[in-house]
Amino acid sequence: MNLPPKVTERAFERLSEIGAATEGKVLRVAVEGGGCSGFQYEIALDEAKDDDLLLEGGGETVVIDSVSLPFLANAVIDFSEELIGARFVIENPNASSSCGCGTSFSM
Prior knowledge:
Elements: E1 6-7, H1 9-17, E2 26-33, E3 39-46, E4 53-57, E5 60-64, E6 76-82, E7 85-91, E8 97-98, E9 104-106
Parallel strand pairs: 1-6, 2-5
Antiparallel strand pairs: 2-3, 3-9, 4-5, 6-7, 8-9
């Protein structure tokens, strides 16, 4: 069964730290064609649109458009802080392979 993506508490906390809701912004997670593996993630602060799925927590919102949603079924949207830097990351069970950059995948 396809479930909507899950957003971790850590990701919502990071959105709160950067003041997304205060600025009237949401975190948009989208899937687009391109990248080194066929699809790539677009993650950016944006404004919600009518056809977006809203995932809310801690006063913050993550949105996914209806076209990207099937690609992100059962995925986990998280925030990672590593030596190479801090970023939002997506653990996607639908991706058959991904590349080293972490933003591109294939299905």
